[in-house]
């Protein structure tokens, strides 16, 4: 089975849910504590064995490329000041992966964004990371999916059990769980954002995928769907029927950093990892509990 070397990160969206903050700053550059959210995504990719990331961008996204580039003047200034720890933090992003960029000139959907990377992916399996979905896990979520792909030989998508009243916010998968691995779902049905009354299950698709390159053929045959966009879900549904598709209930906690509330929760989650910051948060909450009540 081929090693998964490449990943696609679609990052061409305008981030309208974060306006006015995202009027001049890409939403992927909004910080989770002191790191841009996109860096957490690429750190997960690198920790999962990914060597090359293809970033699908749009107008106004140059700051993302700059963040993952070297900055000789800043690095030299920190070096001269003896700020070695901070220097390592600044240098790390440029050393994580090899980064390539492709411009998605028109907002034609997630499926179209992935098609934009076809010439760089070639004929090999690859990962897809949606930058709004941050996953905090002991073993990286993508690494969990890669293990399943290597074991089954089928494309794999990340799943989580969601409240039925929230199924309209997710792609929803249904099928039969494997008797060998109760976290693996052999997908028979995949529907994009169904109403709760129409949802075939509560297995919601989360933004991590390991895809066989045959997905490109399905995407080229996929007609525009919801929002007049080429939906990845529609192509995956066709793949599930013809070639098989596996869903995996990953271990870890997912945060929707594309939503203001989810973004705030993600900041709190990663702040917990820094004792000094977490003590400050706890003190603030305690001092304002009576105000909230």
Question: Brief description of this entry?
Answer:
With 293 residues, the chain is of the alpha/beta class. It has helices at 37-47, 62-67, 72-80, 84-95, 110-115, 118-121, 141-152, 215-220, 232-242, 260-271, 275-292, and strands at 6-10, 31-32, 35-36, 52-57, 98-103, 126-129, 133-136, 156-161, 171-177, 184-192, 203-211, 246-249, 253-256. It has a single domain, classed as Spore Coat Polysaccharide Biosynthesis Protein SpsA, Chain A (Alpha-Beta Complex), CATH 3.90.550.
Properties at a glance:
two-stranded antiparallel ribbon; single chain; alpha/beta; 11 helices; 293 residues; 37% helix; five-stranded mixed β-barrel
What topology emerges from the helices and strands here?
Layout: E1 6-10, E2 31-32, E3 35-36, H1 37-47, E4 52-57, H2 62-67, H3 72-80, H4 84-95, E5 98-103, H5 110-115, H6 118-121, E6 126-129, E7 133-136, H7 141-152, E8 156-161, E9 171-177, E10 184-192, E11 203-211, H8 215-220, H9 232-242, E12 246-249, E13 253-256, H10 260-271, H11 275-292
Low-confidence stretches: none
How many structural domains in the coordinates?
1
Which term fits the overall shape? globular
Describe the main β-sheet briefly.
5 strands, mixed, barrel
Mean pLDDT across the residues is 92
What is the percent of helical residues? 25-40%
- Tally of strands: 13
Oligomer: single chain
Radius of gyration: 20 Å
